């Protein structure tokens, strides 16, 4: 099992880092008391658990619980766990501006004085910063740049955390609101008008054979496969780690289901993470 401990200064981007790791396939928990991290990992390493990667945000918000961070790291080392500590920081000027923009108070600020809270926090965190595996200064970073940095550190391959959510639907029931790309399959001859196929669905081999036998179907598959495959690295570069593809036909029973299944199988064979849903079956 792999684990990442995310810590650092308040306002430095720990939540964004956790969101990025979640997109990369990590099970993420925010504001985790250090003393509980070992317990969670022990549970996650149970043979019945499917969790292979986890990330924990732990910081000064934990108050006295955060004091357990060093013993926690020692315990994880003793377990032989493969873990890294990611520390995020930024300049006082930038952090003060961020707190002002969000109208939130620093956890250690007394009487609303952000700077004094930051100075106390730096003092508390200096030991953990010194032993961190990665230290990222986000002073001059936009969100996309931070995601890129984290991806470069933790992603195993360009498409490690990318997910393709594939669905089928019927136009007469409405287009899925969450769809990023909608493909209209109504140009393919409709099995609905073949009496022996009418009551079957796109999960049936007979329907699939019928839909896939047409040259226009094969031409579409080839073109769409090439387009989507070439676009995925571009989406990842821009910080988008999921893409919702929706295949539609009139009723959402035959052509759309077949094509959703075809592309789910195709991209799964390419090593991508896939989810599939036939909305109107």
Automatic annotation (TrEMBL):
Gene3D superfamilies (UniProt xref): P-loop containing nucleotide triphosphate hydrolases (3.40.50.300)
Q: Which gene encodes it?
A: rapZ
Q: Which residues form the RapZ C-terminal domain?
A: 163-281
Query: In its keyword annotation, does this UniProt entry include GTP-binding?
Result: yes
Binding-site residues for GTP, renumbered to this chain: 59-62
Extract the NCBIfam families matched here: PRK05416.1 (NF003828)
Write one Pfam family the protein is assigned to.
RapZ-like_N
- The UniProt record lists the RapZ-like N-terminal domain at 1-155
What Gene Ontology molecular-function terms does this entry list? Answer: ATP binding; GTP binding
Designated name of the protein: RNase adapter RapZ
Task: Tell me which residues bind ATP.
Answer: 8-15
Note the InterPro entries from the entry.
P-loop_NTPase, RapZ-like, RapZ-like_N, RapZ_C
**Lineage, opening ranks:** Bacteria, Bacillati, Bacillota, Clostridia, Peptostreptococcales
Q: What keywords tag this UniProt record? A: ATP-binding, GTP-binding, Nucleotide-binding
Give start-end ranges for the coiled-coil region(s): none
